[in-house]
Specification:
Serine Threonine Protein Phosphatase 5, Tetratricopeptide repeat; 18 helices; globular; single chain; about 325 residues
């Protein structure tokens, strides 16, 4: 109560000093996360976890933000911390998802199954089942072709891969056309074909083919990758944004798919996002790809990590002398 001087109307001060608690910070963090302001979301969520350090919901939400920005190891540390002191079952699915993105499929499968064993009808049960299906597809992909004695397919793949990586489109096209005839079920071939067509000058046919594929398969990662690249090259940035936005929240399991997204981001001048994606890649699985060295070094340079850029470029040109003939932004 505030006493005013005599002769003036008495006023009552009902303002209570506001001391934010964990729930306030948590709510602010969620709002920032929904607006995709991840740096701000992390700051608010850290305040929430400081206010309530043992609240599993707060820690799990913090892990989700880390997952969204690709900080999978930091996310997993938080989730394991929760499991040490509680039986918060959602952690098992979140761990499974993160391990899948890291390429650790055995661990991903183990945690997805753990979630379903404890919550067969849980809120995340459908997501866990879909994740298991993706893991099974990834594990069986090579085996399916091997069982059919596809030595010829492998020879074609290796030859086309060489020409595509070296951007020798005219040499790749007739081989890809043969592949589509001999192995019509091998879907990736069509996406290689449209890319080779586009960069050899047949742009409209390439775009139409990808749009047709996307109509049949609206979630096709390869179609979004190619169409983002094609429309960017044509300066059609509204169409480009549609397809690049479809990729920004996608973190595939397969290393080759991860590389395609990273390369596409770099080729369309989204260097910061590209750099973060390249950091997540397994170099040991991709050192046979000239595009890994080409675009990772360029993304690193624009990110400001010039030392890493030069080192990658030197390593790449030593392994692939043709790269040395290409122009780079630091020349």
């Amino acid at each position: 109560m505030q006493q005013v001087t005599k002769g003036k109307k008495e006023q009552q001060n009902n303002v209570i000093p506001f001391i934010p608690e964990g729930d306030f910070y948590f709510t602010k963090g969620i709002e920032a996360f929904q607006k995709r302001k991840f740096d701000i979301a992390i700051k608010w969520m850290k305040k929430a976890t400081e206010a309530k350090p043992e609240d599993p919901l707060y820690l799990c939400q913090m892990s989700v933000i880390y997952t969204e920005i690709g900080a999978f190891h930091a996310a997993n540390q938080l989730l394991n911390k929760v499991l040490q002191s509680s039986d918060y079952v959602d952690c098992y699915y979140l761990l499974a998802n993160n391990y899948a993105h890291l390429g650790l499929l055995h661990d991903a499968k183990k945690f997805a199954l753990s979630y379903l064993e404890q919550e067969p009808e849980g809120d995340l049960s459908e997501e866990a089942k879909r994740l298991l299906e993706l893991i099974d597809i990834d594990e069986d992909e090579e085996e399916d072709w091997d069982l059919e004695d596809e030595d010829e397919l492998l020879i074609y793949q290796e030859t086309v891969f060489y020409h595509m990586e070296n951007m020798e489109w005219e040499k790749a096209i007739p081989l890809i056309e043969e592949m589509m005839t001999l192995f019509p079920e091998h879907k990736l071939t069509k996406h290689d074909y449209t890319q080779a067509l586009f960069f050899s000058g047949n742009e409209e046919k390439a775009i139409q083919m990808e749009e047709d594929i996307l109509d049949e398969e609206p979630t096709s990662l390869y179609s979004h990758v190619n169409l983002a690249l094609f429309y960017f090259q044509q300066g059609k940035y509204t169409e480009y944004e549609v397809h690049i936005q479809a990729l920004l929240n996608v973190y595939p399991i397969h290393e080759q798919q991860k590389l395609r997204i990273a390369v596409t981001l770099a080729r369309t001048n989204r260097f910061e996002e590209a750099f973060q994606r390249f950091l997540l890649l397994s170099k040991g699985k991709l050192k046979g790809h000239p595009s890994y060295f080409r675009w990772y070094s360029i993304a690193a340079f624009h990110h400001g990590d010039k030392e890493r850029a030069y080192k990658l470029w030197q390593e790449g040109t030593k392994k692939y002398p043709k790269l040395a003939k290409e122009s780079v932004p630091w020349d």
